Structures are given as structure tokens and as C-alpha cells.
Amino acid sequence: MKYFAGIDIGSTASKVVVLSGTDMVDHFVLPTGWSSKETAGEIAHRLEAGGHPVGEDMKVIATGYGRVAVDYAAKTVTEITCHGRGGRYLLGRDCTIVDIGGQDTKVITVENGMPTSFLMNDKCSAGTGKFLEIMANRLGVDLPELFTLAAAGTPLAISSMCTVFAESEVISHIGAGEKREDIAAGVVDSVVSKVAGLCARHTLKGDVLLTGGLCDSAYLVERLSQKLKQPVFTHPLGRYAGALGAALIARGKAAG
């Protein structure tokens, strides 16, 4: 039996999808850690343990920040192409994909089944998952707890475009005795505002699909929908969009 694997090694998490024909037979996520090379090795071990070893029966396409570290991949493909293909497959129609990653945020337009244009945020972690992790740590909570707090709060202003300065604003709010719920709401609102600003610079076409590790947060989806003034869709496999797109490309190349 022939398998097709997509491996998306991101800056903070690595996602893997394995297809057999039209069926997804395996998918999992691992922390990327400090070494993409070591992560690629761990993924190979995990695939073998799951009954899908890397070899002649496995076609692998790698994408993401650490894609060059996957030395057993037949080819590497850009994140934009893979996220576009995977997101379009999940939603089932052309759309605009907003992917909030650990270190960057991407807005991708998909037309006729293929990515046609994209825009990425500036080289700063503000407006990304890493920003939220840093601020959650400052507030002594994890990400799910941060979103729960934010949903119960009224956003305080956190206006800095720089993560370091934004953290200083959070520290000032803490020192002033502001409610943790209001600070959390301000943190999430800051990220959502930056993502919405990126979307405003890139014409949105069709429905909007949120992918990445934050797509499971109902509160963030709600706030982004409000900012964009249109519904934002998600999918249970949204964080795997890049890996899924890579697996689909592997399957397509094999078929060709």
C-alpha cells in the first residue's frame, strides 16, 4: 500500500499527516524543540511506530520553517503553497486563509484551487502565537486559560507593535492592579487587531478560514470575526493545513 506524508515543521510545533488514497490514516503534532533535525528524526520514529515507516511505500513532502531538515523528504514545498492547498481542501471551496503561526501570520488567497497571492506580517512576533505564549506566561496561565480569562474581561489598551514593549505595557497594567481578565482581553485584542490589520492590507476574497494552532479558540475566532465584520470559519484539522497540503501534493505527484 502506498502512503503519502506531509510534514510541516514550524517554529514551535511540527505537524504530520499521512494519506492512503483519499483517507487520512494518521496525523499528529510534536513540539519542534531546538533542533528541526532532531524533530525530523522523531517524526520518522513516530511514523514507523504507527505502522507507516519511511521507505519505498512512503512519499514524503516537507514544508515549514524547518523543511530542509527532513532529509528523507522527496521534495520541499513552500508554506504558502501547502497551506493554500490544505486550507482549500478543508473548507471545500476557494477562500482566503488566515494562518496564525508561532512566529508569523500569513493571509493567503486561493482561487481555482490554487494560492494566487499572499501577505505575511513583519518580522516581529507581535500578532502571532508566540506573542500570546509570552503574555500568558507573564500572567501565569496557559493559552486555554488566557482565552477563558479574556472572554470574561474588557480589553485594556496594549498598543505597542513590539513584543518587548507590549510586555512592558502588560507589566504596567499588572503593577497598576488591573484585573487579570481585562489584561488578558487586551492581549488577545492586540493580536486580533494586528491580524485584522494584515487582512485589511490584503483584499479578502470569499470566505475566511482560520488555520494554525489558535484556530481551536472559539473566543479568538469570535473576536476576529467581529474585527473583519464577516464570519471566520475554522476546522478541527485547521492546525494541520500545511501538513495536509504537503500530503496532498505528495499524492498528486505520485499520481502524475
TrEMBL record:
InterPro entries (alphabetical): ATPase_BadF (IPR002731), ATPase_NBD (IPR043129), CoA_E_activase_dom (IPR008275), Dehydratase_Activator_Redct (IPR051805)
Domain ATPase BadF/BadG/BcrA/BcrD type span(s) in chain numbering: 6-250
GO molecular function: iron-sulfur cluster binding; metal ion binding
N-terminal signal peptide: none
Lineage of the organism: Bacteria, Bacillati, Bacillota, Clostridia, Eubacteriales
Pfam families according to UniProt: BcrAD_BadFG (PF01869)
Source organism of this protein record: Pseudoflavonifractor capillosus ATCC 29799
UniProt keyword terms in alphabetical order: Iron, Iron-sulfur, Metal-binding
Domain of life: Bacteria
Needed cofactors: [4Fe-4S] cluster
Keyword Ribonucleoprotein: no
Name of this chain's protein: Putative CoA-substrate-specific enzyme activase
Keyword rRNA processing recorded: no
